[in-house]
Structure formats: structure tokens, C-alpha cells
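Appendix B. Raw example, untouched.
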Amino acid sequence: MKNIGFLSFGHWSPSPHSQTRSASDVLLQSIDLAVAAEELGADGAYYRVHHFANQLASPFPLLAAVGAKTSKIEIGTGVIDMRYENPFYMAEDAGSADLISGGRLQLGVSRGSPEQVIEGYRHFGYQPAEGGDGGDMARDHTRVFLDLLEGKGFAEPNPSPMFPNPPGLLRLEPHSEGLRQRIWWGAGTRATAEWTARQGMNLMSSTLLSEDTGVPFHELQAEQIERFRKTWSDEGHTFEPRVSVSRSIFPIVNDVDRAYFGRESGSGDQVGYIDGGKARFGKTYAGTPDKLIEDLAKDEAIAAADTLLLTIPNQLGVEYCAHVLESVLTHVAPELGWR
């Protein structure tokens, strides 16, 4: 059995071929797709976060809205760029959204992906400490955020407050119990996966790893997961971690599917460069359900993960994206033992 959800990059474009031509379209359709996914029996609705782009950005208003409109589905991010975040304000936003959803938030955070602008986090008022870089700053922000989610008091109360204070040091409110164990780190390397385990965060791994050893993507990712789990065990954490991988999977069950994704049926891994370093990209899975079942059964990383996030082409609209989810859940997942 696997948790199966969708991951939306939240693109919009004024193109006449796009079903999302504005930010409003993307936000409202993101809510509608989560509702549809829950009705189909999917387990998660996850959203990317990018700044200075025609994509979803500040996630908490959307997460809260999805939480208010659904009742069972997990709601998450993949991922929030922690270079841009005030961990104190973020802890309040996350607590509020989690309480609205009844404890269904699953927050993926990370250093973030290559940006649309040069050092965009500086426009948000943040800059790395002397001798550090953006990655160091993201990890520092994350450590503060995780500490705040523990819910321990740290602030000295005003002796003459507007409202009476409870005894002792004060914490941020609203606090959502249990959210600390539902934070995931988007790891792009095997070493970062080990760091993630040491911090007591769940592992979120995507269709891109920012390293390449020459082996197929799914094998490299499976090694990353294995290292994460070993480190987690060595650290002796008190709860069982979760691991997610994301994949582009498109069952071809009608002519529309064939028109959109028929040419992807021969897709393979790709090797490229990101931020000056070598990276390996996972392939797109597209084909008839029988062919997908055969191919996906060989994916070692999917087998090792408990959660699978399906990247969806959000610009094709809610109806088509729901169709893709339904096709995977109906024609593929049961035969692989995921359902």
C-alpha cells in the first residue's frame, strides 16, 4: 500500500492553450483539484512554491483554503524555499493552516531550486551570514522553525500585558501539536538525505537529483533512501519516518492521452547541469496501463518509498488532471499492490 497524491507546479500562462491564464485561475483550480482528488480516493494534494514566477508562491492561504474545503486528504508543499522564510511568522502560519485542516498538513521545505532572479531572498530582507551561502541560511532558518514547532516557551512575558498571560515563558500561537513530525526536507543528494535524517525530518525526493554516479535515476534515488533510513535508525528518533518520491506517470487510455503524452512513451533519464553541478533527471512514464505496470514494477525508489506524488500538468485544467489521477488509481495502482 502507498499514499498516492498529486504535485502541482502551479503554472499559469496567457496562452490560449492554457486552462490557467492567471494567478486566480491557478489558485481556484488548485482547490478544486484537491476536492476532486479526495473524491477519487487520492491521499495527498501537494503544491510547489516559487518566487518571482508565474507559479504558486506563498503557500499558506492556499493550504488553509484546501483544508477548509476537504476533510481527509493530506495537504502539503514540495517544497518551500527556506531562504525566503521568516521561521517565526512561518510557524504561526503553519500552525493556523494545520489547525484549519484538522492536522493534515505535510510541509516539504528545502534550500529551494534555481531562482528566476539573482539572490531573490535578499529582496525579502534575508542574506547569508558572513562566510555562509544561501544553503546555509536555509538550513539555519529550518532549524529555528523546527525548534518553534516543538511548542516550548521562549519569550519573556510583559509584566503589564494587554491580556493576562499564562505562567512562564510564552510560545508562538496558534500551536498545532504533532506538526513537528510532519515536516519533510527536499533532499537532492545522498549526503543531504543523511542530514535530513539527523534533523528528524521526513525525506522528500523528486524527479531530480543534483548528483550523478552513472547509474539509472531510480537506483541512485533508492540508494539515497537507503542511506536516509540507516541514518535515521542510527539517530534513534522516536517516530517512524516517511519517504516520498515524485514521478510523471501518464496512463494512455484514450485518444486525448495519446495526443498529449504518446511521444513520451520512449522517455529515458537525462543528465544535465544545475547551478554549475551535474544532475540526473528521472524519466517520464507514459504508455498503456499494462506497459506502465511492467515498467513501474522495476522502479526501485518507488518500491522503497511509502508515498508517491504524481506530477500533474496543471495547465491542462482540473478535469484532465483528475482524469490522470483516476487512471493511475484505477488502472495501475491496484496491479502494483499500491491499492
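End of appendix B.
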